[in-house]
Amino acid sequence: MVEISCHGNLFIVNQIVQLVLENGAALAKEGEFTKKAFFNRKLNLIQANVINDLIHASSLEEANLGLNNLSSEPQKELEFIKNELLDIIANIKVNINYPKYNGVEYLTGQEVLPCLNKLVKKPKTIKESSKKAWIYLEGLKVAIVSKPNIGKSTLLNVLLQEKKAIVFPIAGTYIINKNSEIPSLEL
């Protein structure tokens, strides 16, 4: 990998890039550095996806959501669950194999069950928050359906808080070009 510093003139930059490419260099492909970091175990799959989400974020909320995922809060929760389960398993194994061992607390089913029930709820919470994040990032497909001239286009514009749909006082939706005339209305 080589870094070249030069004047910011686009013509000069393009000339340098062209010269370097003619001499055997290759441009990095989209996502190549993230891919290499993933395969070299510098990033996990969640972090690689978060980088993609950050690159394609179209609002501050989406960027913040990506940054929140990058802090790997869900991963920390899953790691905590894994460690708790391993502790319980280790404790049970010691109880079975060395029943008179003094260094480990003896666990009964009544003591383990509430802890396991609590741990079972955590992945469900993580899953629900992931669903909300997915909906926020990917959006929802919604159909506004009703009889003609009820106000579907107006409703869409209000929901989006912008004039996305054409609203016309005559029944039906009309697209008016410079060459077309407004349809006449007979009363």
TrEMBL record:
<dbReference type="InterPro" id="IPR027266">
    <property type="entry name" value="TrmE/GcvT-like"/>
</dbReference>
<feature type="domain" description="MnmE helical">
    <location>
        <begin position="45"/>
        <end position="141"/>
    </location>
</feature>
<dbReference type="InterPro" id="IPR018948">
    <property type="entry name" value="GTP-bd_TrmE_N"/>
</dbReference>
<dbReference type="GO" id="GO:0030488">
    <property type="term" value="P:tRNA methylation"/>
</dbReference>
<dbReference type="InterPro" id="IPR027417">
    <property type="entry name" value="P-loop_NTPase"/>
</dbReference>
<dbReference type="Pfam" id="PF10396">
    <property type="entry name" value="TrmE_N"/>
</dbReference>
<feature type="domain" description="GTP-binding protein TrmE N-terminal">
    <location>
        <begin position="1"/>
        <end position="42"/>
    </location>
</feature>
<protein>
    <submittedName>
        <fullName>28060_t:CDS:1</fullName>
    </submittedName>
</protein>
<dbReference type="GO" id="GO:0002098">
    <property type="term" value="P:tRNA wobble uridine modification"/>
</dbReference>
<dbReference type="GO" id="GO:0005525">
    <property type="term" value="F:GTP binding"/>
</dbReference>
<dbReference type="GO" id="GO:0005829">
    <property type="term" value="C:cytosol"/>
</dbReference>
<dbReference type="InterPro" id="IPR025867">
    <property type="entry name" value="MnmE_helical"/>
</dbReference>
<dbReference type="InterPro" id="IPR027368">
    <property type="entry name" value="MnmE_dom2"/>
</dbReference>
<dbReference type="Pfam" id="PF12631">
    <property type="entry name" value="MnmE_helical"/>
</dbReference>
